[in-house]
Structure formats: C-alpha cells, structure tokens
Write a structure and sequence with these properties.
heterodimer, A: 204 residues, mainly alpha, 8 helices, 76% helix, B: 204 residues, globular
Chain lengths: 204, 204
C-alpha cells in the first residue's frame, strides 16, 4: 500500500498563486453569451456571498488539515456532495426547518473543533461535516436566482465551494509548525465566535 | 543538353499537375463560410465548449484512467464508437427517447464512481462508457437534426471525444503521486455534486 505523502510547499505555493489568479480575474467583456457567463459567475460568487458560509467552509478545510490524511481530503469531498444533496431538496422546494440556525451552529461547532484541535474518529468528523453541509446546500438551493444557465451555475457553485475548502486546507499547512498550530486554534476560536454572532442574529 | 530538356519537361509536368489539382478538389465540406467554421469544426468546438458534453467525457476519462490501461483503451473506442453510432441513429430518428434529466444522472453516476475509486473490471468500465456514449450521442444526433445542421458535425464530435479521452485518461493513468490521484477523486465528487444540483434543478 502506498503511503500518503503530503504535498510539498511548492505545490501549495503554486495552488495559492492559482487561487490568487482566479480571485483577481475580471469578467471578460469579450463574451457575447451573456447568459452563460452570468450563470457561471453567479454560481461562482454565490458561496462567497455570505460570511457564514465562507467561515464554515474554510473551517472544514482547517479541520481537515489538523486531522491530516485521509480527513484532509475526505472532509472537503463530503461537504460539496452533501451540500449538493441539501441543494437538491432546496431546489425541489422541500422545506428544512432551522436552516439559518443550522448554518450558524455549523460555524460554532466547526470553529470549536478547530480551536480545540479535536480529533474524533473519521466517521464522526465526516458525519458532523455532512450534517451541516445539508443546511448550507438547502439555503443555497432555495436562493438560486431564476433564469440562469443551470449547468454553468452549478459548475461555478461547486468549484467555488471546493476552492473555499482548498483555501482552508492551504492555510492549514501552518499546522506543521508549533506557532502555526496556535494560530490555527486561534482562528478556530474566531470562527466559533463569529458563528455565535450569526446564531444570535438568527434567533433575534 | 538532353538533361536540361528533361528537367524542363519535369518542371512543366509538375506545374501542370499543380494547376490540374487546384481545379480537381470538390468544395471542402469542413469549411462553411456562413457559420465561420463548418459542420466538422462545429462538432469539434461543440465538445470543447459545451460543458454538458465535455463534463461527462472528462468524468468518464477520469474513471477509465483510475482503472488502468485496459479500461482506458476500451473506453477510448467504446465511448467514441457508441457516441458516434448513437449520434447517427438519433440524427436519423430525430426524436429524443429519454428525458434530458438522464444526463444529470450520468454526471451523478460517473462522478460518484470516480470519487469512490473502486476498482472496476475493464468490461464494466466499457459498459458504462457505452451507456454514456449512447445517451449523450443520441441527444447530440437529435439536436443536430432539430436545428437542421449537417450530420458531418457528428464526425467532428467523435474525433474530439477520441482526442479528449485519449489525453485525459492517459494523463490520469500516468499519475503516480497519491495526492494527485486524490485530486482526481475530488474532481469526481465535484462532478457528482454538479449532477445532483442539475437533477434538482430539472425536477424542481
């Protein structure tokens, strides 16, 4: 059986540079297929439109990086799949109670996991991530704007979600160093506090 | 002197040949100035620019690549052949037999199988490739017939599929570093998530 080798720092640098490049790209005005570009770009920007979503998705990547392989890739695979599952129900119009509370709780719980550097069994970590991903997906599914190209919107949406996890995993590389571990735990606490704020506003 | 005459005669012969051949060719069907590219190149560009066809081709290539050279070879010919045959049949029949929702199911199945990375026998991979080819090829054929384009576009589609599958599955097969294979699996999970969202979109 082959051993898992963590990607080298060069690979992460290249990945970060690529993400920066994508993030800094402006819309190409040369495109005449306005609807298609709009569908992809709207899908791409939707997951990053809300801070509660962004924090939870980055926290998944951070936690995965803390847990190491195979969680480092298993959690970011689980989240988009289950999020799509939630989105599926949202698109069908099947209601899910307490969506906003679930999203806020996801930030609280995932932040706490990072802050405490919790290392539960892989299946438990997977179930936690999968459970909260459904709430995120459902919220996105019910908020999808009409008149978009469904396929391009979905592609942009899933890519953006995956990239947010990738950002979390990339930041989580600092876990290699003692100071980095402290910084990660601190960032987890910040995510949990922000989640508590979202929870407050969800009930208010 | 005799040699010079011989060279001159040969030159005249070549010149005559060139002149004759410029008059001989029938109009190249690959070019059509009214559309800019012509049916053959329209077919090629359709595959490369249409995510609804490109995505399952890439997902199938990834699945074949993860399952080794035998599966890759069978997919190369099985997918292309089935796509072409079904495309011609769809063009002649002119009506879609299955709902468009089935394409979402193909995304979902191919993505899930790639993400799971379970070892499949080459015969099973071939069966999946043929099923995907039959489904999408038929839709391409009926689509071309619906807009009253030339069936030559199917040849372009077939050649583009052959090249894309050869390159993509060969690339995946060449991956020896474990985390790069994991990246392929993550990409598979994204395809499955896109398929699930598309399914919700089309049913909702």
């Amino acid at each position: 059986m082959k051993r898992f080798h963590f990607p080298s720092l060069h690979a992460y640098e290249a990945l970060l540079a690529l993400l920066m490049l994508f993030a800094s790209a402006l819309p190409a005005f040369a495109h005449v297929q306005q609807g298609q570009a709009q569908g992809f770009l709207t899908g791409l920007s939707h997951p990053i439109s809300g801070l509660d979503h962004v924090l939870a998705m980055i926290a998944v990547g951070l936690w995965g990086a803390q847990l190491g392989p195979p969680a480092v890739w298993l959690l970011p695979v689980t989240f988009p799949m289950m999020m799509a599952f939630g989105g599926f129900f949202g698109l069908l119009g099947i209601p899910l109670p307490g969506v906003e509370v679930g999203i806020a709780l996801s930030a609280v719980l995932l932040g706490l996991m990072v802050a405490r550097e919790a290392k539960p069994p892989l299946i438990v970590a997977g179930v936690i991530v999968a459970f909260f991903a459904v709430f995120h997906g459902h919220a996105h599914g019910t908020e999808l704007p009409p008149g978009q190209s469904a396929l391009l919107y979905s592609i942009g949406f899933v890519i953006a979600t995956g990239c947010l996890h990738g950002v979390g995993v990339a930041i989580g590389v600092v876990h290699k160093w003692p100071a980095g571990r402290v910084a990660l735990r601190f960032s987890g606490a910040v995510v949990a506090l922000a989640g508590a704020g979202f929870l407050w506003s969800a009930f208010a | 002197m005799r040699m010079r005459v011989s060279i001159a005669a040969k030159s005249c012969g070549v010149a005559l040949g060139v002149v004759a051949t410029t008059f001989l060719p029938s109009p190249a069907e690959a070019h059509l100035v009214t559309t800019g590219l012509g049916p053959l190149y329209d077919g090629i560009s359709h595959v490369l620019l249409s995510p609804d066809d490109l995505l399952p081709i890439l997902a199938m290539s990834m699945l074949a690549g993860l399952n080794g050279p035998a599966a890759g070879r069978r997919t190369l010919f099985g997918l292309t052949g089935a796509w072409l045959l079904s495309g011609v049949a769809g063009y002649l029949f002119g009506q879609a037999l299955l709902p468009g929702t089935m394409t979402c199911v193909s995304f979902l199945v191919l993505g899930a199988l790639t993400a799971a990375d379970r070892r499949l026998s080459p015969a099973v991979v071939l069966g999946i490739a043929v099923a995907v080819g039959l489904l999408h090829g038929w839709l391409n054929g009926t689509g071309i017939a619906a807009v009253q384009r030339e069936a030559l576009g199917l040849a372009g589609i077939g050649s583009a599929i052959f090249v894309v599958v050869a390159l993509a599955s060969g690339f995946v097969m060449s991956l020896r570093i474990v985390w790069m294979r994991i990246a392929v699996r993550v990409a598979g999970s994204w395809v499955a998530a896109i398929g699930l969202l598309m399914l919700g979109w089309s049913l909702g």
